[in-house]
Design brief:
single chain; about 200 residues; alpha/beta; Helicase, Ruva Protein, domain 3; 2 domains; two-stranded antiparallel sheet; 6 strands; about 15% strand; globular
Length: about 200
């Protein structure tokens, strides 16, 4: 139904997460209406993706060997926040509360998807702990089965280094309704209650 070039684009756009063929078609019709100069800007931006590197220290996106967070002299290099993926780091950064550095695992232990600890960026984390004067490790993993499994694995691996290990507090989000909260969330909210 479409020329070969458009079929190819539909295929490639359809490979994006949560994008099906219909949405891919909408992208293409949107792009067809753009001027050649606007399309060239998009092409140039896509080509620049090839220049993006992974930080050798933490696993974040970087323009050179180290990311801007690892290079920032104002950051507390003795506190590492461990996250599963780069979007988790970005979510924490948006709060402007955390001033330490990060370590990105590149996923979580997931037996269903056959992702074991050997497929994650754990060896580099242990080397960072061993070779630097790390005081605290904050585990910022999702409170689901895979996140909990990964957290317990990391805790066992890090115990011998005798550093402080903490986790993000869990409980009821702002604006939530107690009647609709699940039991695990309520248990965590009660256990991690704060003094007023």
């Amino acid at each position: 139904m479409y020329p070969k070039n458009i079929q190819n684009l539909i295929y490639y756009f359809s490979q994006f997460p949560n994008i099906g063929p219909k949405t891919a078609e909408r992208f293409i019709f949107y792009l067809i209406k753009k001027s050649p100069s606007e399309l060239q800007k998009l092409i140039d931006a896509l080509k620049k993706l090839q220049e993006i590197k992974i930080c050798q220290n933490c696993g974040n996106l970087a323009e050179d060997k180290l990311c801007s967070i690892c290079l920032d002299p104002k950051r507390d290099k003795q506190t590492i926040c461990v996250v599963a993926e780069i979007p988790d780091l970005i979510a924490i950064e948006k709060t402007n509360e955390y001033q330490g550095v990060y370590h990105i695992l590149g996923g979580v232990i997931d037996q269903f998807r056959q992702i074991g600890p050997e497929k994650l960026n754990i060896t580099n984390l242990l080397n960072r702990i061993k070779n630097n004067k790390i005081k605290e490790l904050i585990l910022a993993l999702n409170p689901n089965l895979e996140g909990e499994t990964t957290a317990f694995y990391l805790i066992e691996k890090i115990k011998p280094y005798k550093i402080k290990i903490s986790r993000l507090a869990r409980g009821l989000p702002m604006g939530s309704d107690l009647a609709y909260a699940d039991e695990i969330t309520l248990i965590n909210a009660i256990k991690r209650r704060e003094n007023i």
